[in-house]
Specification:
This protein is of the alpha+beta class. It is built from eight helices and 18 strands. It has helices at residues 37-47, 106-113, 130-146, 169-176, 186-201, 229-239, 259-262, 333-356; strands at 4-5, 10-15, 21-27, 64-67, 69-70, 73-74, 79-84, 150-158, 161-162, 208-215, 243-248, 266-269, 272-275, 283-284, 287-288, 293-299, 308-313, 318-323. Helix 1 (37-47) packs across helix 3 and helix 6 (229-239) runs antiparallel to helix 8 (333-356). It binds flavin mononucleotide.
Length: 363
């Protein structure tokens, strides 16, 4: 029952979609970090439902930091954030304590928790739980920014439409964090929105690919085997509900490349060691090489769709059909970008604190 993640910086997650509160405890945080409430608010705003393709559930996310701060700064003791659930409508979910939504976690939760799981709104498996990760991650993300380490995620692909590549990383990250939909190119944004709306009109859902960049990361952070930066980041990404694939740098395309194409040649500029390409995504041997860390996550279409689908009643052991009601994201991806981004910040901070000690983020 592992709901805690991290080494030097440990994040514990709790709560259910329709329970009283969602929350997180962050342990190992550097004392003296100034809490940037404005940044927490803006990151939570990016996660909130905003378009017709997102859930009609409207949560205000009125979070409270109940421990680990004094006079607006972290004390270094466990910081606990609690966020009440206000807009719940549990009656829509009554049948899912016995009828499995295809692609969702109703059946597997039943198998693991012997029927004692909270099935309302997807319970502990709901995307709603990510609100706590965003609030916690935003605290760490703004502390990293003071050290010159920036993290940003955009929607790289939806349907057949691609966003442009990161160009000026710092500017692009600032831009992504200032707009409701994390898409760099305006034309691509319009086309992607049309694709998402179209999927919803057809009572369906759609996924896509998110791309994350982490810049300013010093070379030499990460471990060679089981805590490689790739494994830490992908472990965290696969914890985010609905993420089904992660690739770094050239990713799966590396299988079609020759060594001479894949290798990132080194050079020196202004006393800094850089590489000409970044096919390895800023990581060699599990350790940061000082180039931007770049990775992509594939997120699946939400499983809860208002179409008749074949399934089972796992309590009665009968075959049945289900047409899912309730309020759902027909496209998760606009809201998931900020989850990926803040989760990446938590992982990177953990790696830095493991390497340099818990005072690393002191400002
Ligand atoms: C921000 C966010 C919002 C989500 N919203 C929905 C939703 O409205 N409906 C749904 O079926 N799944 C939604 N999901 C995905 C489910 O939580 C997820 O598919 C489910 O827990 C099963 O886990 P798995 O897809 O990783 O196997 C959301 C995920 C995230 C990250």
């Amino acid at each position: 029952m592992k709901n805690t993640f991290g080494n030097a910086l440990k994040v514990t997650l709790f709560g259910e979609s329709h329970g009283e509160m969602i929350g997180t405890v962050i342990d190992g945080l550097t004392p003296g970090i100034e809490i940037d409430y404005g940044f927490i608010d803006s990151q939570l705003e990016r996660r909130r439902s905003k378009a017709t393709v997102c859930t009609q559930r409207k949560e205000k996310d009125e979070y409270k930091i109940v421990s680990g701060i004094l006079n607006g700064k972290t004390t270094g003791t466990p910081l606990c954030i609690m966020i009440p659930n206000m807009d719940t409508k549990s009656s829509d979910y009554q049948i899912f304590d016995a009828v499995a939504r295809p692609g969702h976690a109703d059946y597997t939760a039943h198998c693991k928790y012997h029927g004692y799981q909270d099935h309302r709104g997807g319970g502990h498996f709901s995307g709603r739980v990510t609100v706590a990760l965003v609030a916690a991650g935003a605290i760490v993300q703004s502390a990293l920014a003071k050290k010159g380490i920036l993290v940003g995620t955009h929607i790289k692909k939806c349907g057949s439409v691609y966003d442009r590549d990161f160009d000026n990383y710092a500017k692009d990250i600032e831009y992504i964090q200032s707009i409701p939909f994390s898409i760099l190119d305006k034309d691509a944004e319009k086309q992607m929105m049309d694709i998402m709306i179209d999927a919803k009109k057809q009572n369906d859902s759609i996924g896509g690919i998110m791309e994350t960049a982490i810049i300013g990361m010093p070379a030499g952070v990460g471990e060679p085997w089981f805590d490689t930066l790739e494994s830490m980041l992908s472990h965290a990404m696969f914890a985010i509900p609905a993420i089904k694939g992660v690739e770094f740098g050239a990713g799966f395309n590396c299988a079609d490349m020759l060594g001479s194409e894949m290798n990132d040649e080194f050079y020196i500029e202004d006393g800094k060691i850089l590489t000409r390409s970044n096919n390895n995504g800023g990581i060699n041997g599990g350790i940061s090489n000082g180039m931007p860390i770049v990775f992509r996550c594939a997120i699946k279409p939400a499983s809860s769709i208002p179409q008749k689908q074949k399934t089972v009643n796992f309590k009665e052991m009968t075959q049945t059909e289900v047409e899912i009601a309730g309020r759902h994201d027909s496209a998760i991806i606009p809201r998931a970008c900020v989850v990926t981004e803040t989760m990446s910040a938590l992982v990177i901070a953990d790696a830095l604190l493991s390497r340099y000690g818990t005072d690393y983020l002191f400002n």
